[in-house]
Amino acid sequence: MSNTNTTKQAQVKKEESKPVLPWNKADHGVAMKTFTGYNVNLTGWIRKDIQENTRKRKNERKRKRKRKRKRNRKRRRRRRRRRRKNRKVKIRKI
């Protein structure tokens, strides 16, 4: 009889020690593309950690694109300068 009592106590301790993941009620749909090619909007509860990860990934992609654009702008400017510098000066006859 005491054996079953200790197992119940152990189960209760295990359940209490599990971390609780916060969930957010999503007011908007989450766009997903299925393997068949359909676009589906899912609505409902989203785990907070997943939501944060997707936000971080999205922001990181934005930063990468911005850096790439900036780098390309600099390269274009350098090329233009080189072209202008390397142009041959046309001599006009008077």
TrEMBL record:
Q: Where is the composition biased (Basic residues)?
A: 55-94
Residue stretches of biased makeup (Polar residues): 1-10
Segments for region (Disordered) = 1-30, 47-94
Name used for this protein in its record: Uncharacterized protein
Q: Which organism is it from?
A: Naumovozyma dairenensis (strain ATCC 10597 / BCRC 20456 / CBS 421 / NBRC 0211 / NRRL Y-12639) (Saccharomyces dairenensis)
